[in-house]
Request: fold
Amino acid sequence: MSETERPRRGAGGWAALAGALFVALIGAALAAGGVQLVLLKGSPYYLLAGLGLVAAGVLLALRRPAGGTVYGTVLLATLPWALWEAGFVFWPLLSRLFAPAVLGLPVLLILLAAPKDRRRLPMGLTAAGVVLALGLLAAALPGAFRQGQAKAPAPVTAEAGPAAGDWQFYGRDPGGQRFAPFAQISAENVDSLEVAWTFRTGHPDLRGSEDQNTPVQVGDALYVCTPTNVVIAIDADTGKERWRHDPKVKPHFWNRCRGVGYWARPQPTGQPCDQRIVTSTINAQLLALDAATGRRCPGFGEDGAVELTQGVGPVKPGYYFQTSTPTVAGDRIILGGWVVDNQELGEPSGVVRAFSAETGELVWAWDLGNPAITRLPPEGQTYTRGTPNVWSTPAFDPALGLVYLPTGNATPDYWGSHRSQASERYASSVVALDIGTGRERWRFQTVHHDLWDYDVPSQPMLVDVPVAGGTAPALVQLTKRGEIFVLDRRTGVPIVPVTERPVPQGAAKGEWTSPTQPYSAMPRIGPERLTEAMMWGATPLDQLGCRISFRKMRYEGDFTPPGPDGRPSLQNPGNGGGMNWGSGAYDRRRNLLIVTDIRMPQGVQLKPVKKSIGTPAADRPAQSRGAVLYEADNTWLLGPLFVPCVQPPNATMTAVDMASRRIVWQVPLGTAEASGPLGLGSGLPIPLGTFGLGGPVTTAGGVTFHAATTDPYLRAYDNGTGRVLWQARLPVGVGGTPMTYVSPKTGRQYVVVSAGGARLAKKKGDYVIAYALPPAG
Reply:
């Protein structure tokens, strides 16, 4: 063909060429990644599909309609592969079919320029692939919206109890049930809720700050705290500020306040501080404030403050303080402490102490490394450093006189060859202490020799569970592992059987692993053994990247040990859970345990320490002596577009019938509205489940409230089915747990949420918002 005979490319021709080259480029990327995946013994689909797309793109660039035939064939072949791997489930199908179908549209446009007699087959194959792929997604889409798939609606089997009382504790009651015996707001009328009032705390958007507050209500006042420990009293009916106390703490890299405690003198004197708000601060002080005025209480510690670093030893700024609500048990204020993770050995002690609510005097101390120390350490000594701590919220049983401590790990989290024998006994456990003396009554360990940061984060929940012949006083412990342990709270003996099962071995040099770990006969929430086919992404390329990441990791199921061999280990669940500090709720009317979980695996890799980070304990177990020290890198398992690699849902709410010990319903938490590739919100209201640590609260009205999702909504769920009954858009997301109360003045039930910004969201705020039914008349 001469130069004058060669067809010229107009604007449409150049667009067609660009489209064809784009198809080839996508194919080349798939083929290159596919080669890597095949070498990792993964699926050959991406290599074959990539080669097909390269061929299709090249042929289309050469203006040969056969390119459409090749593309259509690849797309049609993708359909049975997608169904074989994913089944008829929307989210897994979306990542496999949507992008290839959309890419087929420009292919069809390119084919329109071909001679009619040569484009019929190519266009037919490509169009069939596009229509079938999009049709299959459309058919599966209703399943993505389905909420409340109850296997059998939970029956109402118990009375709610009296409808009076304050939200005085972090979990409303000493046992952390988060059950409000109020039925004014019910499943039938919850969709009529409206904003009753809005309050702004004035907390600035500070780096390192996160609002995780659950307000406390006593009488006609609501008490909230900001991440920098400003305590504010609000009128429970109007939302007007009554007072605020600013301790003027210096912010640092981890500012938190999950709630405040409340104490009242059994015999009021008529003087200030008969009723007190107690709060701990990010600079490790315990404060007592007059509940009526917010002024510090004279006679409590020194000018209303107790220094919590006393006896702890040297503390670097930000390395030790209290994040969770102080536990006020009778006339005792019981506190543990948070320590910064994974920085050094011998960090401040995990000691738990009880102080007099009247004077602030130290009443007792529980030092698990040295039980002989029952109050302050001897002169010149400290509480045992580097021991497991209690950073979350205890629960207590006034009738039994026991307080239940959820324990953490001896930092660092991902290797334990440095730990003492005492640390090994108490880490990742529930420990019952006598409230009066601080002496141990029993303990139960949820993870042996924890190398996965599976400290116990959730507040123990004290409930009376159905058993043969009646009920038993139980402690329900939720864990990051997704395991639910049900123990007799008098003795620590499991009510629901617990068995020791073998787990993967092969730890790093000098490290060791427990040959078995405890598993409960309760339903396990969330984690299932991952496979390559469960890897996800917004596009096939994103999914391919996740499959390659998965194949590169060592993964042998639960408790795969971290290793230093240049190959990260896959940890599922990740260190965020499973269940976390938001804890669960218990519907006493239905004997229904309601929990939320996170499904975000992570990679963990150990590296030998090149610098001194402290001295290992002298009384280590025999298998730890002479061990090598390591530091850990841990990262969320995310794709190239920063989308979670595991197919949705990435978070759920689950209801478990405690009589049958079976799951009644399970639904995703949160939608894709504020989630998407590169951290950009998609705007889609499809419930895929999103990251959040705050927990649920449930009511006698048959409604559970929850707000800790990436998208900014407070939602109400039907306790019988899990269906979303109502939702209200918030100015920003929520990091904590809602609460509800009935005003003693007006008799009006309110639902309140502190909205300061979701965990992974950039937009922050300072809102406290109350909802209620419209006033009668």
In short: Confidence is low (pLDDT under 50) at residues 1-7. Residues 230 and 246 are 5 Å apart (CA to CA). The chain is about 20% helix and 25% strand. The longest strand covers residues 470-478.
